[in-house]
Write a sequence for this structure.
């Protein structure tokens, strides 16, 4: 349990966070680690806020739910309000620049950067905000290797979008530096 | 606030759970307008549903409301109506709820001609469970359980209800919202089983997969595709291609079930 | 010579309907199936006479659904069936538990599994009565052992259903359902009839809210102007769906406590010749008659044996049985199945006494001799 | 009550940004803002036809009249 | 960097279909319901690719009926569902038991009772798996605790179904069904795949006849020219209905013995850190993961605790548990319900050890801490 | 012995369990004659039923035979046919089995147009359970659960099947046994869903209670009451009173379900 | 159990043996005794042989099935073959004159008389063979009083048929004498 | 094979005495005996029309021809 890293990726439905979670977990596996991914289902997954949770660990993962995330990503205010807990000391919090963090929230580190704007304006596709986010996460945590992350992304994204996604990932690295 | 919303909906339960652009809210709107037009007593209306996105409507409507099990709304409603014939009983149901798992209760409610008004929210897909095809999904349409295009033939619910014995059966779309309101109003006045099939777009589980464009595109599609049954019948066969009839398919008077039962009770009393 | 007007010689199924009517029964929704069919047929004859309603639905699922719907309007309702139909009703049985709708469900048990032996008796659905629908839920199930008891137990079933706002099952069997016996009909004034407790205040009515320490919410009838919502989803006190784990827990705990906190009121059993007993025969329904015959015979032979007869099978009278078992050598369970309530007995009695089993599921009722032999093997 | 006395109102909390009202508005009165919430961009162009209210699935836009006076 | 071709990161539901296909799965009949829907969706995608058939029926009852029909033609068949659908399938589950039709039934458990908490996990249908259909009948039910195990267990389910000519249930849950984990796909040659044993001689073929001492009759496929009869009524060796009590008994005994006489082959469980254990945590499915985490934690704290994990819940590994329980102080049962398998544990363990229960049915999975606390209360 | 009986029935299971004068034996006779006329391969025919007196027919017929659960015959048969499209699949069902509890499977089999031939043994009553009314019992008829006369309206099964999408739908009676044989023969040749409604007298549970006289009287009634649909349609409305149409109600060609599925499989193979 | 009298009345469906059983039991009740009545159900009750069983006792009746009948009535050969056991010593056997009794059958007493002919020819209605049988049974066993039997019959039979049934009963008494 | 060569046969064990064949026989050939079993009372009147076979629900009466030679 000690060498276990737990992430909660949240945002609006349609922001590709399910895919982001899978890619992140697969990168972990490429690095030879163990990984699980779970997500919110049902009505709450429609519109509104949704989340995808990933655990990456050096050893087998038993209890599969994330309770005290080492990192929480929130791309929208609604997601932040719903999924960033006031009851614990959060690890790293990564949010879009437009998201306000309630002062009552405790954390180890806050990364508040223009994720969506970067995706929209710099890469030209709002939809890659998820990949930008992955870049930030990798840069900030080193929980998976960059090589594994790149491979994991390329394994999953549609043919023809590889370049775009690589750009997005790298912008993420930049944002976290 | 919209006066119908204020009067007939449980405002504290809104905004509703339906997706952006889902047509179900439009149908619910027409139902309460029709109820208002008729000046029905709120305390004497009961709305019953099964399970599905559409079947969540009763939760928003300020009457006695019952969210039952999948497909069984009409069976529960039959019990309510027979036990308390004075109540106005309305069933709201999805196409899957009404015609897949609930198909038998539908045709039997039609056969008995029990005085219930059923509004089928037909989005031609299982919305709540994420886009499996339903008995009204068009052949060749894509669905999560028809990944290569559906090979099933669809039901025409309005016509099936007519054939099974309903007093009144009609169809409209959420594009033709005013017309829909009128048909629901008509249906509510029928003494017998009445059904209005309301075509409703599901952008999330149907539109996206089938590349139907924006919800506005889907509404425009309804405008193009659905034409009044009388106009339709006048078209030469080749022009009917791609068109679907809407309007009133049947409006006849038959003995009504709970009234017949009351006669039986009265007869037995007389016998004493 | 005429029979006294309060004496009749009738089938168990008829006694059930007579009891129901005396309890205020007004609605039947169901679908015919042997050997429960007379319950539908007699309801069709009798209900309209008292202004009640009978409906034969298109199937068993519709039958229970209609009965639940009717109950919501304030009518005392029943549905009746046998094995295959009982299986089909399971989803909506769970709905009635969850939505807390009073309802009497009669299962006249026949030989299973599947279509099995449709005209033969069995007690093979006892565990199904408790576990047949998905998810955790409370259950009350009664088993009469005579035509007379069928009459009273049906009244009790309606009373419990109304009092605890939940479905109550009568798990009878083909023998009791079809046999004719004399019954004595009590004066109406001597019967305790429990009616639904309705709210009186519309303002702030909580269809699923209870006072501290209470377990059963007041129930408004549809049409009374309360305009409330009912769902089979987990819900809060207002009746509206709630995804909160806390609410779900609160709801389920309360549902279970309706039974668990009221065992004194609900539990019912007969102790027959147990005072000095060294052996207990535990039985119920038709089989209890064989057990009684067996006990009479064995007592003649000087064997100290008595019967613990379940009248409520669910909840199971754990405490009393445990107590009793401490003073005996053997607890013999006799039932028309391959071992159902005996599992519950094993669980409760533990090592306090030796547990013997006498069961059969071939369509024949257990004979007194079989019971005697099973016990005698221990001597 | 005559049409002219009706007032076009919105309830942005309920708006889900489906764009139906914008699309069907005959005089191009409406717009969605950055957050995909409805905005009455050109109120003066509104001819009070009620088409937005008719097809808004979310009850988030409507014409309000005197009969709603009692609403507080 | 690419994953090895035999490694995939997939959902439990997907692993189930992958296992099924590797077992020779060729027919799906069902009706969608959360959280089992992916089983239907993936079947719709994959089956036609291998010449198999997928059909979405009008309801769950039709779904299992179609799957049984398909199995009669020799195809390995599956139906999948969750709570409410599982309740609806009960009648035909009994039919498949009685007619001895191989079939895999998957129940991805969600929060009940009734519609309950449709998107939340639960283990509330465990008893229903055994008792959900009317009448006495045998049951095999398996519970995987990981995505990888879902793959293997599905293969095993098909094998058991074919070998014992009966429906086999996989009682998984929303957690395992929806979570993604790495799975390693074995070489096809390393898999043991069991196919149906068909008769070779038409003359004198007895569809329900077995050799002395055997329990499973050979099964001809419809269309192979055997022209035999199948019914859900009690029947004799020829498959034709029989009202004889003797035949009914013979049939039922044999059905039960298919499981009871083959426990060695069927039973499966994991013993984790039990060698020196003073406390046993008994668990299964998703909850077993919490149990394992709890045990690791407690071991660090020096508490001698291990896990007895059910892989077959039904039949229940009575003997082994009884044996184990004799050497421990506590048996703690952890399950996502209000107490189901714990009843079986109480029955089996009796007074050998103290039985503790850690359950919840509010839609949340039990945490390792809850398990630890439940056990620590005993110290 | 009658050559058809010898060839197609399980002679050791006869005499059958049906009551004296029950029409079900006549229908079974016409089925095997139709099968013989077409020279179908005995080893490749499967007969499926639900539960009821009529549903006991498969037990007497020397094919692969399946006696399922009440109302579910068509769902089981659908699985058999889809899994093994080469088999000739025949469903025999009672009016209750097919149109009460089994009504939904019926309309969906029609909708899918799966190649199954269904023969409904319609005695307008639940025979096996002793005379409760069924969805085809005429209004006002007596039944054990309609002791004061039924207030339910009956289904017209043949028409309902046609409306639900069947390729072929027809009706005859056991009086018109030769015609019945012909219709069954026709139905068996249809590639798609076909249904023949065979009216059959139940003296025990229907005739006696409704004072219909001897079984011969009941047969004579069929002769009087049932007239060919073409002749019926030519009658002036007042003369139609008391008459019921028989003959072929529908005979059309639609894509057949298992064939469409095979196309899908072939298409996917092609894609590789 | 000792003072318990068990009867099995069998014949063809439609011969009114269900009614006979009920009447007999009700007569027992009128005499102040305990009584139960059971019958065969289902397919076997269609056509073919059917039976109705009655137990009359001074005390409560527990086990309700008849195993060693003190009296068995069989109006048809089929019923006799099916319901008269070869494995026990039967008590009294009452059969129609046309019924042949297998020599292997053991009994205490055999009454073989023209029941059906009496009903048909003497009373003029074959359907009253059941009441004729009751007369025989009462005369032969005294298990219920004649007074109770007469009342029981009159309570159950349709108005207008009282005389006919009384005649049938008396013919039964005669036949048993 | 011509009609005349057909032979009218009965299988009284299967006959349930429903009287249908008797009723519909155009030349009044048939009767039921005391036990309600079918009897060919006037064989010579039989015109081999097959109506009895057609509607006998119990397969208890039929016309047998040469094609059944193989039957033993
Ligand atoms: C017995 C049962 N089976 C299946 C389900 C799962 N389920 C819930 S809603 C639904 C279908 C919804 O489709 P439809 O009725 O068309 O309504 P929509 O959601 O599209 O409005 C299904 C299959 C269920 N809840 N219960
Ligand atoms: C699930 C279930 N419900 C009810 C029954 C009881 N049952 C058996 S057959 C039958 C109806 C038979 O009527 P029908 O289908 O018209 O056939 P018939 O007997 O008249 O030929 C019923 C209600 C059953 N066996 N199973
Ligand atoms: S999924 Fe479809 S039907 Fe359901 S709310 Fe969303 S748009 Fe509407
Ligand atoms: S139609 Fe309604 S929900 Fe849609 S954009 Fe306009 S106001 Fe918003
Ligand atoms: S009860 Fe009716 S349907 Fe059944 S066999 Fe007898 S006559 Fe035929
Ligand atoms: S029709 Fe058949 S069963 Fe009826 S009397 Fe004639 S031969 Fe006998």
């Amino acid at each position: 349990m000690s060498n276990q890293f737990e992430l909660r990726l949240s945002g609006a439905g349609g922001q590709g966070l399910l895919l982001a979670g899978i890619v992140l977990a697969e990168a972990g596996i490429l690095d030879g680690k163990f990984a699980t991914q779970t997500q919110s289902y049902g009505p709450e997954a429609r519109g509104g806020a949704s989340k995808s949770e990933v655990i990456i660990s050096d050893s087998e993962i038993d209890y599969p739910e994330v309770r005290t995330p080492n990192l929480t990503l929130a791309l929208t205010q609604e997601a932040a309000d719903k999924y960033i807990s006031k009851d614990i000391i959060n690890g790293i919090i990564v949010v879009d620049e437009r998201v306000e963090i309630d002062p009552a929230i405790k954390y180890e580190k806050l990364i508040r950067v223009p994720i969506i704007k970067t995706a929209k304006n710099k890469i030209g596709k709002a939809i890659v905000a998820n990949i930008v986010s992955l870049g930030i996460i990798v840069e900030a945590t080193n929980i998976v290797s960059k090589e594994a992350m790149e491979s994991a992304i390329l394994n999953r994204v549609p043919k023809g979008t590889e370049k775009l996604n690589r750009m997005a990932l790298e912008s993420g690295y930049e944002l976290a530096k | 606030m919209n006066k119908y919303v204020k009067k007939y909906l449980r405002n504290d339960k809104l905004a509703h759970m339906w997706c952006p652009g889902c047509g179900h809210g439009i149908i619910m709107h027409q139902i309460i307008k029709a109820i208002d037009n008729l000046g029905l007593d709120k305390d004497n209306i009961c709305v019953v549903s099964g399970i599905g996105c559409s079947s969540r409507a009763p939760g928003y409507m300020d009457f006695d409301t019952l969210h039952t099990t999948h497909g069984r709304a009409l069976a529960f409603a039959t019990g309510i109506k027979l036990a308390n014939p004075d109540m106005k009983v309305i069933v709201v149901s999805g196409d899957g709820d009404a015609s897949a798992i609930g198909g038998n209760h539908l045709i039997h409610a039609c056969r008995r001609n029990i005085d219930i008004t059923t509004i089928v929210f037909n989005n031609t897909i299982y919305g709540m469970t994420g886009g499996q095809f339903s008995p009204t999904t068009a052949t060749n349409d894509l669905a999560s359980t028809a990944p290569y295009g559906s090979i099933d033939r669809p039901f025409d619910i309005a016509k099936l209800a007519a054939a099974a014995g309903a007093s009144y059966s009609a169809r409209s779309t959420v594009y033709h919202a005013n017309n829909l309101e009128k048909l629901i109003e008509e249906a509510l006045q029928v003494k017998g089983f009445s059904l209005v099939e309301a075509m409703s777009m599901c952008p999330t589980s149907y539109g996206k997969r089938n590349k139907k464009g924006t919800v506005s595109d889907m509404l425009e599609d309804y405008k193009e595709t659905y034409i009044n049954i009388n106009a339709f019948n006048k078209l030469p066969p080749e022009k009917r291609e791609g068109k679907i009839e809407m309007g009133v398919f049947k409006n006849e008077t038959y003995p009504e079930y709970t009234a017949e039962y009351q006669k039986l009770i009265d007869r037995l009393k007389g016998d004493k | 010579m005429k029979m006294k007007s309060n004496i009749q010689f009738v089938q168990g199924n008829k006694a059930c309907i007579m009891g129901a009517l005396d309890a205020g029964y007004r609605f039947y929704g169901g679908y015919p199936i042997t050997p429960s069919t007379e319950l539908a047929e007699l309801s069709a004859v009798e209900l309209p006479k008292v202004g009640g309603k009978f409906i034969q639905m298109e199937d068993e699922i519709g039958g229970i659904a209609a009965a639940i719907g009717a109950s919501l309007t304030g009518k005392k309702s029943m549905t009746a069936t046998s094995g295959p139909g009982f299986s089909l009703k399971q989803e909506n049985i769970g709905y009635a538990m969850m939505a807390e709708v009073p309802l009497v469900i009669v299962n006249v048990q026949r030989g299973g599994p599947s279509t099995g032996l449709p005209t033969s008796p069995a007690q093979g659905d006892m565990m199904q009565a408790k576990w047949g629908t998905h998810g955790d839920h409370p259950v009350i199930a009664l088993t009469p052992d005579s035509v007379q008891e069928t009459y009273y137990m049906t009244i009790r079933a309606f009373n419990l259903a109304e009092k605890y706002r939940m479905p109550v099952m009568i798990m009878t069997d083909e023998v009791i359902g079809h046999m004719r016996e004399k019954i004595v009909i009590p004066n109406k004034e001597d019967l305790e009839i429990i009616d639904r407790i309705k709210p009186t205040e519309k303002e702030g009515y909580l269809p699923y809210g209870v006072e501290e320490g209470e377990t059963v919410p007041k129930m408004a009838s549809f049409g009374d102007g309360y305009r409330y919502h009912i769902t089979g989803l987990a819900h809060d006190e207002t009746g509206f769906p709630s995804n909160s784990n806390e609410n779900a827990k609160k709801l389920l705990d309360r549902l279970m406590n309706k039974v668990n906190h009221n065992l004194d009121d609900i539990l019912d059993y007969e102790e027959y010749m147990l005072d000095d007993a060294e052996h207990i025969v535990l039985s119920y329904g038709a089989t209890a008659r064989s057990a009684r015959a067996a006990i009479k015979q064995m007592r003649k032979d000087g064997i100290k044996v008595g019967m613990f007869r379940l009248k409520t099978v669910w909840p199971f009278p754990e405490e009393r049985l445990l107590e009793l078992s401490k003073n005996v050598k053997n607890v013999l369970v006799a039932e028309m199945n391959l071992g159902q309530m005996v599992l519950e007995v094993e669980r409760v009695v533990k090592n306090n006494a030796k547990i013997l089993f006498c069961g059969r599921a071939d369509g024949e009722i257990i004979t007194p001799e079989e019971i005697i032999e099973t016990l005698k093997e221990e001597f | 009550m005559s049409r002219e006395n009706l007032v076009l109102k919105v309830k942005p909390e309920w708006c889900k940004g489906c764009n139906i009202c914008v699309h069907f508005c005959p005089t191009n009165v409406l717009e969605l803002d950055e957050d995909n919430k409805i905005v009455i961009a050109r109120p003066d162009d509104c001819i009070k036809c009620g088409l937005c209210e008719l097809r808004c699935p979310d009850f988030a836009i409507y014409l309000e009249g005197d009969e709603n006076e009692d609403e507080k």
